[in-house]
Design goal:
This protein has 335 residues and is of the alpha+beta class. It has three domains: 26-131, Immunoglobulin-like (Sandwich); 150-222, Phage tail protein beta-alpha-beta fold, CATH 3.55.50; 227-294, Ribosomal Protein S8, Chain: A, domain 1 (2-Layer Sandwich). The protein has helices spanning 2-22, 156-167, 190-200, 238-245, 281-294, 314-317; strands at 24-34, 37-45, 50-55, 60-65, 68-70, 76-79, 85-93, 98-105, 109-116, 119-128, 147-155, 170-173, 180-188, 203-207, 212-217, 227-232, 254-263, 269-279, 327-329, 332-334. Residues 228-300 form the NolW-like domain.
Length: 335
């Protein structure tokens, strides 16, 4: 019994040691003055997977390193005399289940982040950037700072959950999202970056009107997911088609009128109506059937008229028929 307990204890110790060795560790952070600005270097063991965003209040650049541990002193803060960096802190990151390095600034400036050979390098220029104006919007991605994402062979689900925590988004990830991706995005709009990440993992996201986002595999159908179809109209105007299908749209549906250019035999171009409809697949199928019935040539009645030109002489009006042949001979008149 004692031998079994000792064996289990040794196995646990070995597993803990292997896990610690496999994790990325932040070993050092340095702030240096360079010719055109300031450089912050984060030294790591292994290949760090990084996600970063900018905070306006207080001005800071936040860098989360996924699944990492810190070999520095806990809650270490490095002061800096190099403008615009005031200090750098290293703390645990709940969002990334790793380490968060926060670069506090005296003012927001242009910056770029690179990751290579275990070094995460943040180059900060002297050029200040304007604080974006906050606008009222129901879009969950509105008023969010840009995203920087530098990851290699990381799980899409883990990255999405980290971004959700960083930006305060309501995101649900289905259990069958298991793709591994390598992504390099630097300072892109949040929606653009998230869509690019999901595209790389062959996934997509479905948004509802309450701001909840569901991330799922691309080929997996989901109730409430909208699609967009373009209907090219040949015989009916887009305005009339939009009115005809208005009551068929679901609560998530919308229809937009447009035009397309069509080349003719003479080399000229004419405009033809198009209708762009976004809705759930069930509604789109019904709308497609209605548009197919409406977009047909209008039946036309063909009327042929034949004009005959005649001339009536005065004699014909009095009833003389000159078709009768009259001949005169010495014996008299023959009719």
């Amino acid at each position: 019994m004692k031998r079994i307990a000792v064996a289990v204890l040794i196995s646990c110790c070995l597993w803990t040691g292997l896990s610690a060795q496999g994790a990325v560790a932040v070993s050092d952070v340095a702030v240096d003055k360079v010719l055109d600005g300031v450089r912050v270097t984060i030294a790591c063991t292994g290949t760090p997977n990084v996600s970063s965003f900018v905070s306006s209040e207080p001005p800071a650049i936040v860098i989360d390193i996924m699944d990492a541990v810190a070999k520095l002193a806990s809650d270490r803060i490095i002061t800096s005399g190099h403008h615009p960096v005031s200090s750098v802190s290293v703390q645990p990151s709940e969002a990334a289940a790793g380490v968060r390095v926060t670069i506090y600034l005296k003012e927001l400036v242009e910056h770029a982040i690179t990751s290579e050979n275990g070094l995460v390098v943040v180059n900060l220029s002297k050029q200040p950037v304007a604080v974006p104006v906050r606008v009222e919007s129901s879009d969950p991605f509105a008023n969010k700072p840009p995203l920087t994402l530098l990851v290699q062979e990381a799980e899409v689900a883990s990255i999405v959950r980290m971004i959700a925590r960083q930006y305060g988004l309501n995101i649900l990830v289905t259990q069958d999202v298991k793709a591994l991706v390598s992504v390099h995005l630097n300072n892109v709009p949040l929606r653009v970056g998230l869509e690019a990440l999901l595209k790389a993992g062959i996934c997509n996201m479905v948004e509802d009107r309450n701001g909840v986002i569901v991330v799922k595999p691309l080929k997996k159908a989901m109730y409430g997911e909208t699609e967009t179809r373009v209907f090219n109209l040949d015989y009916i105007e887009a305005t009339d088609a939009a009115k005809a299908i208005a009551k068929m749209l679901s609560e998530l549906g919308s229809a937009t009128e447009g035009f397309r250019r069509v080349s003719t035999k003479g080399g000229t171009e004419e405009r033809s109506s198009t209708l762009i409809v976004s809705d759930v697949p069930e509604a789109l199928d019904r709308i497609a059937e209605v548009i197919a019935e409406l977009d047909r040539p209008v039946p036309q009645i063909s009327i042929e008229a034949k004009f005959i030109e005649t001339t009536h002489s005065a004699e014909e009006r009095y009833g003389i028929d000159w078709t009768t042949v009259a001949s005169f001979s010495t014996g008299g008149m023959d009719f």
